[in-house]
Amino acid sequence: MQLAFDTRPGGEVVTPQGRLTMVSARAFREQVSAHIQANTGSVIVIDLSEVSFIDSSGLGALVACLKTARQAGGDLRLAAPSEQVSMILTMTNLDRVLKPRPTVEESFGD
Q: Does the first or last residue of the chain, that is N or C, have fewer Cβ atoms within 10 Å of its Cβ?
């Protein structure tokens, strides 16, 4: 899985590409957590538009990153999830905790 990091007004955008699964979740969590620690107090938006599939390990990595962001005085938000990712978030009720927004721009609006 590849990650792109982009600084924008209001925070940071992380764009993972591919599948967020057991195989890639650990590296994803470590890279995003390191980025959060380097940008304490920032809003981090995970742009899921290029994630084609997520499993329970990927969900766990997102929750771990949310915890890390909040402990660092910031927040983590999700943007533009695919249909599959949205379905998994809804089925697990994580859409209530992570509250995905349709676009990256809307994620910075709160």
A: C
pLDDT tens digits, one per residue of 19-59: 999 999 999 999 999 999 888 888 999 999 999 999 999 99
Hey, what domains does the chain have and what are their CATH numbers? Answer: 2-107 (3.30.750.24)
For helices 56-71 and 22-38, the axis angle rounded to 10 degrees is 10
Map residue 88 onto helix, strand or coil: helix
Give the three-class secondary structure for 110. coil
pLDDT tens digits, 69-93: 999 999 999 999 999 999 999 999 9
